[in-house]
Design a protein that fits this description.
The chain is α/β, with parallel strands linked by helices. The chain is built from 13 helices and nine strands. Bound molecules: N-carbamoyl-L-aspartate.
């Protein structure tokens, strides 16, 4: 599949309108193509500094119950770029401003917020809460991360970045590295990669932070080659796309477990010599210590541009689920 910038057909737009984006599993290959093409269309509009009003008169509720910089701000930037408006709840367990602090369930909160907006982007620390939110939402709901569960919009911008940098995902070896147990971005990316004709997926993690078996089994059942390994060097030497991730400190059962694992997967300058020609390095960010800053100079280190791609991809998602692509 090549992605050419383009608006969705009326039939594709109709098929998206009103849908929730909860995970990658429930998106078809055609859905991914529509999202990528629409993202490329908005990317071009941003580059040409065109003023858009596709979502004029629409309001997005931006509900973030866990720390976020990139996801929240790129969602909010996306709706503003489309001419829409945003209302926000942004809080953490230690800094609460909404009625969830009074014990309100997510279900009740969403039942109310439906009346205030046309689309909801929501992040929560609770794995699986996306199902509860989807039950309550009468406007389209986009999952901005549910605990250690899924992070579909991240995976979509990851796929978009690989397209932009390599022209294709097919025929390539992709390595997902780091905390594959608690990392929701790796969970969703694995599902996304499995929709393509990839050559192989390498899952590289410390022994204690392996990708959950059920996530691996469902991909293997599709006939995709998956290789697990427990050292970063192997992944670095064999992959065309290397996806690094942060050890998810906040999701560990104990401080000891975190301490044992926090320094095991670190990409440093010495790895640059080991890369395959044209290899690219991605990271959802924020980074802690897992990519040393010297690697930033490598031309294939695209993680900052990757974050930027969050805006056109989230513009595409917002406009598609509200049926607003003009
Ligand atoms: C990721 C997340 O929140 O899961 N960050 C992001 O959305 N860009 C990755 C992480 O926090 O490690």
């Amino acid at each position: 599949m090549a992605i050419l910038p383009g608006k969705p057909t009326q039939a594709a737009l109709d098929a998206f309108t009103g849908r929730n984006i909860m995970d990658i599993e429930s998106l078809s290959k055609e859905d991914l193509e529509t999202i990528m093409q629409t993202a490329a269309y908005y990317d071009q509009a941003l580059e040409e500094k065109r003023l858009l009003d596709d979502m004029k008169g629409k309001i997005m509720a931006s509900l973030f119950f866990e720390p976020s910089t990139r996801t929240r701000l790129s969602f909010e930037s996306a709706i503003e770029r489309l001419g829409g408006k945003v209302i926000t709840v942004s809080e953490t367990p230690t800094m609460q401003t909404s009625s969830t602090a009074k014990g309100e369930t997510m279900y009740d909160a969403i039942r109310v917020i439906n009346y205030y907006c046309d689309v909801i982007a929501c992040r929560s620390p609770i794995k699986g809460v996306r199902h509860e939110i989807a039950r309550a939402a009468t406007v389209p709901y986009i999952n901005g991360g549910d605990g250690s569960g899924e992070h579909p919009t991240q995976a979509l911008l990851d796929v978009y970045t690989i397209y932009k940098e390599k022209g294709t995902l097919d025929g390539l070896v992709h390595a997902i590295c780091g905390d594959l147990k608690y990392g929701r971005a790796p969970h969703s990316l694995l599902d996304a990669l499995s929709k393509f004709d990839v050559k192989k997926i390498i899952l590289a993690s410390p022994q204690e932070l392996r990708m959950p078996a059920e996530n691996i089994e469902k991909i293997k059942a599709k006939g995709i080659e998956i290789e697990e390994c427990f050292e970063l060097d192997y992944a670095v030497e064999h992959a065309d796309m290397i996806y690094m991730t942060r050890v998810q400190r906040e999701r560990f059962g104990s401080q000891e477990e975190y301490e044992r694992n926090k320094n095991l997967f670190i990409m440093s300058e010495r790895h640059i010599q080991m890369f395959r020609p044209g290899a690219i390095v991605l990271h959802p960010l924020p980074r802690v210590n897992e990519i040393e800053v010297e690697v930033d100079e490598y031309p294939g280190a695209v993680y900052f541009a990757q974050s930027g791609n969050g805006v056109p991809v989230r513009m595409a998602l917002l406009a598609l689920v509200t049926g607003c692509v003009k």
